[in-house]
Design a protein that fits this description.
Number of domains: 2
Shape: globular
Structural class: alpha/beta
Number of helices: 14
CATH class of the largest domain: Alpha Beta
């Protein structure tokens, strides 16, 4: 007679790339999202189900004025009220600096795991690399991963390193799995912040002997309606913000590792699916009241609503902001990081809060001098085939530069500066934000050591956001158009 084993249900809820998305918004006549309603769904699920884990796959920070005004402390207080069981780091957790991140960790009442951030001098890890949870006798191993490919901001922190690529990350996963396999782990989860494509690459590299069952991902804001299986490993990601949450329902049989049931779905967070948590709502409103008082002043007006629909193309807002920075400046060309522009549209009325959310990176501005030949190499590298995946750095350029790039031929059909062909021996003074200056070789494909031979770089401004605030305050009825500065053919 077959043994009748007890079945155990386990629910894993997961978010990623929340980015300070605390405020509910009306969509199709229904209030959606918001930190208080997200908390309401998590509480509701915990009340209904016996075994629930809530995991966050990085990037809680950046994206709202409430987050940036308090440098993430407000976000941590609100996240504490959601009681995550485990969180891994994303690249934006390091935006306020490493020292501040370590302070933030002390403010968190939830565990933060990461297997591959370390101090280069002695290879000491900065965080616990894993966490083992037990729910009703079921043991779940979580491993946190973020690779150097998405941690460009750490280049300013000389003593901080990370594993270079997905292959090395896979090796580290294997070491952790090998070490803790003896603890009778029932289920192994990688909590990653490396992007959906890299999650698939990572899964393909993991031998079945490691026993990895699931990758909960982040970074690319990929909205997966269904789990994707690679090499026997399920991969999930829940878009971004608080408009939805991922839900995985598992069925185990006590005493056995084998999973009897796996069901994944995205759950909309709106007024039809759950109620708000009143305590989270109260804390959020207190922060919102304070920031509204400070940031609701009208800064400027546009002639119409301007857009920035994608980071890997020329946009109206990209042209406007690149031109504003270059205007009356000491440099010839502004290369503005396209990812610095964080909203798809802005205006026609622009409040100070809108600017702070749209352009949250208040970093320094550096001047370098490049030759015409070096600039062409830089732009060719930016426009390489990888650019169209949306995972590489891209730039909005000020009005002096116009080019036509052939994707099929991988060459420029036109390349003009101030309306004239650019000679290879010309000298152009370009400006870059701090983040892009610190990653010059990686982002532009030209060795930094080669460029600084032209002229010693220098800081020409200490606050990019301050410049935009001052310039917009003194301008009205602004407009901008896509005008063929970066034309892609074939």
């Amino acid at each position: 007679m077959a043994e009748n084993r007890e079945r155990i249900n386990l629910t894993i809820l997961h978010s990623n790339d929340i980015h300070g998305d605390f405020v509910p918004e009306e969509k199709n006549g229904v209030l959606s999202g918001g930190i208080a309603r997200l908390a309401g769904y998590i509480n509701q699920t915990r009340a209904k189900e016996k075994n629930v884990i809530y995991a966050v796959a990085g990037d809680m920070f950046k994206g709202s004025i409430i987050d940036s005004e308090y440098m993430g402390i407000s976000t941590i207080e609100l996240m504490n009220m959601l009681y995550p069981d485990v969180v891994t780091l994303g690249n934006h957790e390091i935006d306020y600096g490493l020292a501040h991140l370590l302070f933030i960790e002390k403010c968190a009442t939830f565990p933060i795991i990461n297997a591959n951030l370390f101090i280069t001098t002695n290879h000491t890890r900065l965080f616990n690399p894993y966490m083992i949870m037990e729910k009703d006798g079921i043991k779940i191993l979580f491993i946190g991963i973020v690779t150097e490919e998405v941690l460009a901001s750490t280049k300013a922190e000389a003593v901080i390193g990370s594993f270079v690529d997905v292959r090395e990350a896979a090796e580290e996963v294997g070491i952790i799995c090998d070490t803790y396999k003896t603890m009778d782990i029932n289920y192994t989860v990688i909590l990653s912040h490396i992007g959906f494509d890299k999650d698939q690459e990572l899964a393909a590299l993991l031998p079945p002997e490691y026993g990895v069952d699931l990758i909960i991902g982040g970074h690319t804001h990929t909205l997966l309606e269904k789990a994707v299986e690679v090499n026997g490993i399920q991969i999930v990601q829940a878009g971004n913000g608080t408009d939805q949450i991922g839900r995985i329902d598992l069925i185990f049989e006590r005493g056995r590792r084998h999973v009897l049931g796996f069901k994944y779905r995205l759950v909309p967070i709106n007024e039809t699916s759950c109620e708000e948590d009143p305590f989270v709502r109260e804390v959020f409103e207190n922060y919102k009241t304070d920031t509204d008082r400070k940031y609701q002043q009208v800064l400027t007006t546009f002639r119409r609503k301007l857009t920035h629909p994608a980071r890997n193309q020329e946009t109206e807002l990209g042209n406007l902001f690149a031109d504003l920075m270059q205007e009356d400046s000491s440099f010839d060309l502004m290369l503005l990081g396209s990812g610095s522009l964080r909203l798809p549209e802005l205006g026609p009325v622009v409040h100070l809060e809108d600017l702070k959310v749209f352009f949250p990176y208040d970093d320094a501005l550096h001047l370098l001098e490049v030759t015409g030949e070096q600039l062409k190499r830089m732009m060719a590298f930016i426009l390489r085939d990888d650019a169209w995946t949306g995972h590489t750095e891209f730039y909005q350029v000020s009005k002096q530069l116009h080019l036509v790039w052939s994707r099929s031929r991988h060459e420029f059909l036109e390349f003009t500066f101030n309306g004239k062909p650019l000679p290879d021996d010309a000298r152009i003074k370009i400006a870059l934000q701090d983040y892009h200056f610190n990653n010059f070789t990686d982002f532009f494909g030209v060795p930094y050591e080669e460029v600084i031979k032209n002229r010693r770089p220098r800081v020409v401004a200490v606050s990019c956001c301050g410049i935009y605030e001052e310039m917009l305050m003194n301008k009205r009825n602004l407009d901008a158009h896509v005008e063929g500065r970066l034309t892609i053919v074939d």
